Each structure stands twice: as C-alpha cells, then as structure tokens.
TrEMBL record:
<dbReference type="InterPro" id="IPR050738">
    <property type="entry name" value="Sulfatase"/>
</dbReference>
<keyword id="KW-0106">Calcium</keyword>
<keyword id="KW-0732">Signal</keyword>
<protein>
    <submittedName>
        <fullName>Sulfatase</fullName>
    </submittedName>
</protein>
<dbReference type="InterPro" id="IPR017850">
    <property type="entry name" value="Alkaline_phosphatase_core_sf"/>
</dbReference>
<feature type="signal peptide">
    <location>
        <begin position="1"/>
        <end position="24"/>
    </location>
</feature>
<keyword id="KW-0479">Metal-binding</keyword>
<feature type="compositionally biased region" description="Basic and acidic residues">
    <location>
        <begin position="508"/>
        <end position="527"/>
    </location>
</feature>
<comment type="similarity">
    <text>Belongs to the sulfatase family.</text>
</comment>
<feature type="region of interest" description="Disordered">
    <location>
        <begin position="501"/>
        <end position="527"/>
    </location>
</feature>
<feature type="domain" description="Sulfatase N-terminal">
    <location>
        <begin position="28"/>
        <end position="383"/>
    </location>
</feature>
<dbReference type="InterPro" id="IPR024607">
    <property type="entry name" value="Sulfatase_CS"/>
</dbReference>
<dbReference type="InterPro" id="IPR000917">
    <property type="entry name" value="Sulfatase_N"/>
</dbReference>
<keyword id="KW-0378">Hydrolase</keyword>
<dbReference type="Pfam" id="PF00884">
    <property type="entry name" value="Sulfatase"/>
</dbReference>
Length: 527
C-alpha cells in the first residue's frame, strides 16, 4: 500500500507540474530601444517652455500605451559608460568605465592642472551582462546597431549580432546626395509613412535601414523562444545628415528654409536644424516599424495574442543632447543646462518610456529613475534568476511596482524609498570634471578643478524652480546643511564604488609644487 501510495503521489505531482507548465503565462519578450545623443527636449514628451519642433508621433504613441518618466536619467553623460551601465546593471564608476576613451592614453594640455583617468580597452568580460543572464534563463538574445563598449556584442552574451550603422554614414554632399528608389545600399521604401503634407499627402518613403531590418529579422526568427533585443541606433549622433530627401524637404518647409539647403553649417538658434530634425523623426519611424510589427504578429507561444501584448519596450537615450558641433547649431536643451559630456541636467536627463503588459496606459512617473534600474527590473519581469553574488553587484533598483501602478515610490529590497542618484565624470574639460548627486529638490556637484561644491535647487516642493542651474547656493549659509549632507553621501558613494578621479598633470606649466613627492625608504634585510 505504501508503494502504491507513493506512485499515486508522484503521478499527482507530475500532473500538477504539467498543468502548471501548460497554464503558466509565457515569459515576456524584452526590447531595449536605445537612441544616441537624443536630448530630453528633442521629443514631444516633456515639453517645457517652447514645444519640441521635431515630430515624434511613435514615441508619443508608445508613451500613451505605457508610462512616461519625466525624471529619467542615464548612468553617465556620454555613450560608452551609459551603455555599459545598462548592460551590466552596475554604476560606470564601479566598473571603471566612465567615458568613451577606452584604452586611450591622454597626455592632456600643459595648461590643464588635471588629467582624466586611463580607462580599460573594453568592458570587463568577467562581469555578468543582462544578455548573459537572460540567455542562461532560456532567452534568445540579439543586438542590432551601436555597441561601443569594446570588442563585439557577441563577446557579452548575444546570440545574434549586427553592428551595422544603417544609413547613418558620412555622405559626399548632404544637401543633395539622397537615396533613391534604385539605390543599391539604401533603396527607398515602397511603403509610405508619416509625416504627411500638402506636397506628400500619402506620406513619404524612407531609406533602407539595416539596424531596423536586422532587428525585425531577429524578432521574426525567434519563433517560440522568448527574446531579448538590444536595438541601439547610431543616430542622432554626429554627423548631422540624412539620406531622406523628402523628409529633409518637409522640415525645410516647416522651418521656412530653402530646399535644398545651402551648403555650410546650420546656424539658426534653437530647434531649427532640418538635418537633425530628419534624424529624430527617422529614429521615431524605426520605433514605429518595430511596434507595428509587434501589433500585427501573432505570439507563437500564446495563441490569441499579438507580440505587442507579451513584450516590454524600454525606450531611452544614452545621454543628453548635443547642442553644437563647431559652428553648427544642432538642437537646444533649454531649459536644461549644458548637454552631452556634462553631469548637469542637459547631459544626463533623458527621454524615457516603458510600455508592456500590466503597465497602465498613459501613465506618468515623476520620481527619480536611472537606466541602471533596467537590469533588476527586467530580471523580475522575466522571472529570471541570477547568482546571489551577481545580484549583490547591481547598482539599480527593481521598479516593477512602479511600472504596475502598485507603488508611487521606488523602493529598495528593505522597503526604503530611493533618496538619491549619483554620477561620476572625471573627464573632458576642466569645467566638466565633476561628480554629482541628485536628492529630492537638490543637485550637488563636486568640482575637481576647484575642489569645491556647487548646489542648485532644481525644484521646490516638487515644482520647477531652477532647471537652468543658474543660482548656486553652495556658499549660502542657509543651505550649509544640505551641502554637508549631500557631500557626505556623494563622497561615501565614490569611495564605495572605487571611483577613480582625475590626476595631477605632471606637465602643468603653472604648477607651484611637484605632482608627487618621493620620500626616503630603507630596506632592512633582517626584517
């Protein structure tokens, strides 16, 4: 009887496991849609003061189907550290990858008292990546587009890799060398897409984009396997150009400029550069192509549902926008201060939207969110498991409760609300060599050149106050306690993350003391 009872129990357990397997919801797909150098004010999401001049209907549509983060931040003000931060879930300072100059020795100018730190040639291969984690949990992993953290994306857990630039390459004459229907490399699409105009009431064609097409191919070939797609556009980075003549003409007309444009730099202030406008709308078009495919395609693992119903899309940019390049005016981050290569708001606050199953449509979150939060959040959404030692290394927080509308705050594992975010950028010019911390209404900067602090009150009781960061409060006695509190937290984080700061320049012409002093030392053979 005991043996028979054991057999019945085992059969019951097997049936229960089989039923659970058959009825369990398929694991969701994950898409990170990452844009290069797209500023917070370069899309039609967070219009402050003047509305955005660039048309981004698909980004707006994505926000209407999910959640817009008005205070979303990149992990760094430049490309490589932000990308490394997303893919590892670790702060750039912690992994020693804080700028784009990977493996380059910089001697510095003799007029500069400080030197930026040397960076390794590529992202450490021993660090667990998001692709590694999801692959180990049964996901098919793919990367399309820009990588820029050294080596190749295939070295970091991606099954399928295409690092092509798409149409974003230099061209002979940006005023007229546009793609045609018979173009061998960038043929214009037969399908028509927005924007619509009196000249083109049915829409316009777009040049072939290998970045988008390889992403669509990856999704299509994933079949019944859940997938993770890391889609990273090279746009809207310099060079500022477009092969889409019809789109350029549309923006020239909209901005009241001649078409074709005159040769030379575009120098009109604000958001009046038609080349840049065309790049922004092209990226938006790419997002629309991806979403349209998800909406029309059945999920083979979930009969009766489309892929859009089982896929999370994380949309953002690697850093803030670039306002100028030489004499060319590209865009305008106002009211945010500065842009790329600066830890000020214009360099790290970025557009951010997340959409997918269970996320309330048309929702908005105004709290502090960092792209470092993506890794732990995606682990939760996909029910993916990693080793405890790897989980300990993650710098971000799981924001799933926020995404599901169950919490109005980002909480850590102990239930404590997030109090701050910090950045470390000891690079570029003396003016930009800073670390920064954002907490509540305040943002504090540690300036390495002058070895002191700046303090700005960005908001007052949650409302806009000094987004321009014009009123430095650091020397005001009334705010001394704020400087001391945030300064202490920042210093502690820099130490805990082994942040490497700038060094004294031994070739600095105005130095009054040696860069280093060598003391006397004796070796005692008997010790």
């Amino acid at each position: 009887m005991k043996f028979k009872h054991l057999i019945l129990c085992l059969c019951g357990l097997w049936l229960a496991l089989l039923t659970t397997k058959l009825t369990a919801a398929p694991r969701p797909n994950i898409i990170i849609f990452y844009v290069d150098d797209l500023g917070w004010q370069d899309v039609q999401l967070n219009d402050v003061d003047d509305p955005c001049a660039f048309e981004t209907p698909n980004i707006v549509k994505l926000a209407e189907s999910g959640m817009n983060f008005t205070q979303g931040y990149s992990a760094a003000p430049t490309c490589s550290p932000s990308r490394a931060g997303i893919i590892t879930g670790q702060h750039p300072a912690k992994i020693g990858l804080t700028h784009v100059s990977l493996g380059a020795l910089t001697s510095g100018k003799k007029s500069d008292p400080l030197l930026e730190p040397y960076l390794q040639g590529h992202l450490d291969l021993n660090i667990l990546t998001l692709a590694d984690a999801l692959k180990a949990n049964g996901y098919r992993t793919g990367h399309s587009g820009k990588w820029h953290v050294g080596l190749n994306a295939a070295s970091y857990g991606f099954d399928v890799v295409n690092q092509d630039r798409g149409p974003h390459r230099g061209m002979g004459d940006r005023t007229k060398d546009f793609a045609t229907a018979n173009d061998k490399q960038y043929p214009l699409s037969k399908e028509k897409y927005p924007p619509f105009s009196d000249k083109k009431p049915e829409g316009i064609s777009y040049p072939y984009d290998e970045v988008t097409e390889s992403a669509l191919k990856f999704i299509d070939e994933s079949g019944e396997q859940p997938f993770f797609l890391n889609l990273c556009h090279w746009m809207v980075h310099w060079p500022v150009l477009t092969r889409n003549g019809e789109l350029l003409e549309y923006y020239c007309d909209k901005f009241g400029q001649p078409f074709p444009p005159k040769p030379g730099d575009m120098t009109l202030p604000g958001q009046q550069n038609p080349y840049f406008a065309a790049m922004v709308t092209t990226v938006d078009w790419s997002l629309g192509r991806i979403v349209d495919y998800l909406e029309k395609t059945d999920d083979p693992r979930n009969p009766g549902k489309k892929l859009i119903e089982t896929t999370y899309i994380f949309f953002s940019s690697d850093n803030g926008g670039v306002e100028t390049h030489g004499k060319e005016i590209i865009s305008d981050n106002a009211p945010l201060k500065y842009g790329k290569k600066h830890s000020e708001e214009g360099g790290v606050r970025v557009p951010m939207v997340i959409a997918g199953p269970g996320i309330p449509q048309g929702s908005q979150f105004d709290g502090l969110i960092n792209q470092l939060d993506y890794f732990p959040t995606i682990l939760n959404l996909t029910d993916a498991k990693i080793a405890a030692k790897d989980a300990k290394e993650l710098s971000g927080l799981d924001i799933t409760p926020v995404l599901q509308g169950k919490s109005k705050q980002v909480l850590d594992a102990s239930g404590k609300a997030r109090d701050y975010l910090f950045w470390h950028f000891p690079h570029n010019s003396m003016r930009s060599m800073k670390s920064a911390i954002r907490s509540g209404d305040y943002k504090l900067y540690k300036r390495y050149f002058t070895n002191d602090y700046e303090l700005y009150q960005l908001e007052k009781n949650g409302q806009r106050n000094d987004y321009e960061e014009m009123n430095d409060l650091a020397q005001n006695p009334e705010y001394r306690s704020v400087v001391e509190r945030l300064g202490a937290i920042l210093e502690a984080e820099l130490a805990a993350n082994h942040a490497e700061g700038p060094y004294l320049n031994p070739d600095y012409t105005d130095k009054k003391t040696p860069s280093a002093d060598l003391g006397d030392s004796k070796f005692d053979r008997g010790s």
